[in-house]
What we know:
This protein is α+β, with helices and mostly antiparallel strands. The chain is built from 13 helices and 28 strands. It is globular and about 90 Å long.
Amino acid sequence: MQEISKGANVSLTALSEDAGAVVVSLSWSSVSGAGDADVSVLLLDANGKVRSEDDFYFYNNPAAADGSVQLLGKTPTGNGDEDRIGVDLTAVPQGVERIVVAASQYGGARFGDLDDLRMTVADRSGEPLVGFSIHDAGVETAFIFGELYRRGEEWKFRAVGQGYETGLAGLATDFGIAVHEEAEEPEEAGDPGEAGHGADAVAMEKAPDAEPEPVAPDPAPSPVTAPSPVTAPAPAPVTAEPVAVPSQTRGRGPRTTTTKKKVTLPKVAKSSLAENDSWRPARLFPVPTLKSDKEREVRATSVLLSVMAQVPEFGRRLTAAFGAPAGRMQTFTEVSLPHGDTPRRPDGVIRVERAGKLWTALVETKTNGNPLKPEQVQEYMDIAARRGYEAVITLSNDVALEGAPMVDVKIDGRRKHKVSLWHLSWAEVAHQAQMLIRHEGVGNAAHAWLLQELLEYLRHDQSGCHGFQNMGAAWVPVRKGIEDETLASDDPRAVEVVESWERLIRQVCLRLGGELGQKALPVQRVRRGSDPRARRAAAAERLCLDGRLTAELRIDGTSSVIAVTADLRTGKVRTCVDVPAPEGSYPLTTVKRLVRLLAEAPADLHVETLVEAGNGPRGTLERLRPEPGDLLPKGGAALTGFRLSLIKGMGNTRGNTESGFIRSVDEAVARFHQGVVAHLGPVEARAGRQS
């Protein structure tokens, strides 16, 4: 390991061939062993300022969404602590030029009270590369230990050792963060997320008019003396969510309430410490031992209901649509309820208390594609009505459709107390969990981890909780009838296939929306209030005539509408979208711009020019890239837009196996959005014609 002094710098790539990711360690000690400090990391742009509050990482914001920075926590040493930070330099955004690593103290403590202040940088394998010790700490309450910074294509480390008498507030202000003191107020009772953090917490926002910090030339050391406090007036608040900065009096005196940043998990997984792929991580909810459908139902119900009770955001998301109030939730399994001579045991019970009133729902669960039993659900509806419960919730792999109840039950109109019957798909459960931990956030890291473990459980082959996965018994005869042209136009099995197709499209929307963090919804081009059964009958008639299943889906907040066509005669799935031409632009400029936007799209993408009358030129992107002018309309026809299409082979079987129809449609939509629609950027896209 190379030792350097204050102000010196060294290239990390010159010290190791495996410096794409590093572990930075800050350590200190004291005679009593009681010394402590809070570590923080700031990502700075070329002006030496944070781009937003999301570039500031500390105990309440410990990880970057892209996986570039992660606070790994403290490790006790003989007479002090060592704090470690993982930095994936390959994942650091291009707009970040410097990564500042600092620490701050609280309650009047000073860094001069600590001994052995030291910073080390190790490579991905844990091999120490460079070390730097601070020997001149005094009255400072915050310290920049060092920084990682770009020079061309490489990353370098500089030993800084710059102290601040003004604490974390002074350090944060220097890097473009406006600091506002919070008024002290009693801590809200029962908030587990604030334990261990005391008063004098501050809220921070990006300072819009802060002067850029000069960047020192590469060889020059950073300043050693602490800067004077910044006295400029605080700027007007911006719309960014305030983030709590580490407290200055941990565990001492009155406490304050600050806005807490929601925790989401990065998409980039942590690097594994396993020796090989055969090592499987320990799971909170193991599933390989499940052998029967009854075991799967019992385990799945218990896992889901326990997570709902422990993660308030998740429990609320799943029950709000069923009329449940916001309140304290408790969940139960295998509850025995009187029913004639033989008690009944619903799979679960959900109870929510608000203002002294209880809301109760019975839960009936099915896994592995098993159908719900109408007589069983009817019994639970009767029990709920007698006992004054509000709802019965059915949970299975099937997807509910408008105008098509999952089970037929009879409601006794003579009863004053009405019970609502609701259905929830396992695909919806997985969607809501993914939305929270990937996009919207939950209250703390433990809740995010619980939801991640739930997702791992649901995705396991043995869980039986995979969502809609069977096109039904009518699929094979209908497809065969279309292939040999023997399917009658009034065959009732065609309606069954259309209903299964609609369920599949709804599930595809859930999965796509979970990945994007936005709602994706099927588009119904029918009059509002029209009978859904009549709509499905008309679609079944079209299926018998032309052998095609069609659908459109829209991503919320955009005008992108993806058209999906499954042609049962040719065995192909087509996904397409129409891109309008900008008004007033030159045709050749428009064509070249489109080809540039699709630089990373699949080479087999079909591009067709849309004109006001007739058909325009068409071809694959592979052929058009070197000659985009081939897309120009002939004969001076007016160019109105383009149709982009991908064609994929369709699975034969009715299930969700590798060769299954369901998986082929799901993969076709995912590939089309990721490979084509996502690259269109500001270009407006509308649904391609079903042709």
